[in-house]
Amino acid sequence: MKPIGSKRRLLLFLYGAPNIVGCLLGLMGLGLYFAGIIRDYWLLIVVGLYAGGWLVTPRPVEQELRLSHELDTEALRASLDALVASIRRRVPADILAKTERIAATILEVLPRLGEVDGGSHNTHVIRQTVLDYLPTALQNYLALPSAFARLHLLREGKTAHQLLLEQLDLLDGKMREIAADLHHQDSQQLLIHGRFLEDKFRDSQAWLTGG
Q1: Taking residues 160-178, what's their average pLDDT?
Q2: Residue 193: its pLDDT value, please?
Q3: What is the largest CA-CA distance in the chain?
Q4: CB count, 10 Å around CB of 119?
Q5: What is residue 133's DSSP assignment?
Q6: Within a 13 Å sphere around the CA of 193, how many CA atoms are in the beta-carbon half?
Q7: Are 170 and 178 in contact (CB under 8 A)?
Q8: Angle, to 10 degrees, between the axis of helix 93-109 and the axis of helix 160-208?
């Protein structure tokens, strides 16, 4: 894992919920002091309120979003449902909507995985998206304080929120491309089977008529 620089570590601390809650409680203490409600030991009280807020605020529990490595359709369906459910109240609506759309496309093509070559490019991309690309992108985003993800500029003047949306758009586009490719294969197979039936019935008709 790449070490976190001291500047970024400081920013993550400042944007973190424990620091924000501690600052709010500390400001309340200052308000009580300026209102004349507390006088003696006011500085200790303010520091104590900040420390109390910092200590009692729950830290985000690192949630493992990796999915099962079993390419079983029902197991993956349950895993994708669990993935979406786990982020439903933790990410903004636009991120949730894109994740749900990607999951829906993946579930649409999952039944075909057993019918196509397991070493094909499409199968590899689907597998990696389910097992790595999608959960990793979401996990990296959820590891950041929400205020940092929405406000702090990272690469190319974009926030973590904007960068994640771009990554999800790439995954969504690729999944739709694969789905279209599989549907095209289905249509070609249907046409081939139709021609096969036409030939069989034509041969049968010729045999009946003695042609």
Answers
A1: 93
A2: 46
A3: 115
A4: 7
A5: I
A6: 6
A7: no
A8: 20
